[in-house]
Amino acid sequence: ADSAAQAVKRGGGNGFAFFEAHMQDGVRDQLELARDLRAALEDGGAGQLSLHYQPKVAGDTQRVLGVEALLRWQHPKRGAIGPATFIPVAERFGIIIALGDWVIDEACRQVAEWRDQGLRLRVAINLSVQQLRQPEALLQRLQHALQRNGMDASQLSLEITESVAMEDAGATERTLQRLGALGVSLSIDDFGTGYSSLSYLRRLPVSQLKIDRSFIQDLETSADARAIVKAVIELAHALGLEVVAEGVETTGQAAELRAKRCDKLQGYLFARPMPAAELVHWARRSQAPRGCETAP
Ligand code: C2E
Ligand code: MG
Ligand code: MG
Ligand code: MG
Fold first, then answer.
1. Distance from residue 161's CA to the centre of ligand 4 (Å)
2. Across residues 237-266, what is the average pLDDT?
3. Residue 219's closest CA among 194, 248, 189, 261?
């Protein structure tokens, strides 16, 4: 895979064709994706990359409190490819830093544009483990993006999955401390799927836990899932953290979460991830005073 990655770095050509002949389909597929992704990035996204935004709404009032940026890739030949497919490719072939930088710049640019349109929204960005392993570059990139867009650091939050946060605990803790000092807020994503130690969690400067979708999905059918969700919410509140439930799809799940005092809800029940322009309309509709929603 190393020589394959080298071939991609050289940008294809004869070297690439040589390796291609020796490769299995899956690997060749990944190499092609890596090459195409690199080309799109070198062209500033090339109109292929975009961010979609999914609202996080208040548990009690359903007002939108912020959005999560989710990366989308419209491949010129293959059509839409999901992040679950191309993020691992980007990580494997050394493209994730450039891709993550693109996301940081684009999300901050978008927040500034919304602000200029009179819409104040906080945005959350998902971080890859490799971005955390290069804290200098990450901090600099974030600082520049905030400055360039006249953004306050408090408008930005960073989502880190629980498994990433628990890996290499010492280094991660130091990096998160520095990110926290910058003023951005930190959120533990997919919580409940990893194995965090509570004493470690307590030391991290995080302000939010996001309960993994798998528990939310089972809320109505599994007593275990209900017990876990209840325990996570109580634990988070006891530690002074805010809790978000991800992947809320039904009114039954939402009711259960509200009864358990979950602070924020996110999921298809409220809104799917959507392009920035659509989000503006969605936010205006959902923020409209009651009684106006049904006006002609
Ligand atoms: P995540 O951060 O846990 O994001 C939640 C995923 O669940 C998103 O999938 C979202 O579209 C989906 N989702 C939201 N509500 C619902 C729901 O009610 N039901 C169901 N079934 N799904 C829901 P998506 O956009 O495909 O992203 C998948 C993962 O890819 C993300 O998981 C995140 O880990 C990663 N990812 C996305 N964008 C980026 C990025 O810019 N950088 C990095 N490093 N990773 C990203
Ligand atoms: Mg996330
Ligand atoms: Mg998540
Ligand atoms: Mg997830």
1. 8
2. 97
3. 248
pLDDT over 90, % of the chain: 77
**Per DSSP, what are the bridge partners of residue 94?**
none
Nearest CA to ligand 1 atom 6: 247
- Across-strand partners of 103? none
Q: Residue 284: its pLDDT value, please? A: 86
Tell me the CA–centroid distance for residue 70 and ligand 1, in Å: 6
HEC profile of 213-228: HHHHHCCCCCHHHHHH
Q: Measured in angstroms, how far is the CA atom of residue 98 from the centroid of ligand 3?
A: 22
- Rounded to 5 degrees, φ, ψ at 152 are -80, 140
| CA–CA gap between residue 64 and residue 281 (Å, rounded) | 12
For 42-94, what is each residue's pLDDT tens digit? 999 999 999 999 999 999 888 898 999 999 999 999 999 999 999 999 999 99
Bridge-partner residues for 73, per DSSP? 49, 81
What is d(CA 74, CA 78) in angstroms, rounded to the nearest whole number? Answer: 8
Residue 254 near residue 269 (C-beta atoms within 8 A): yes
Q: Name the residue with the closest Cα to ligand 1, atom 7.
A: 247
Statement: residue 96 has pLDDT above 80: yes
Q: How many CB atoms lie within 10 A of CB 44?
A: 11
* Ligand 1 atom 8, closest CA: 70
With a 6 Å cutoff on the Cβ, whether 192 touches ligand 1 is no
Would you say the CB of residue 273 lies under 6 angstroms from ligand 1? yes
Q: Are 39 and 66 in contact (CB under 8 A)?
A: no
Q: Nearest C-alpha to atom 19 of ligand 1 is from which residue?
A: 247
Residue 289 pLDDT: 57
Q: What is the ipTM of this complex?
A: 0.99
pTM surpassing 0.80? yes
What is the number of the ligand closest to the CA of 54? Answer: 1
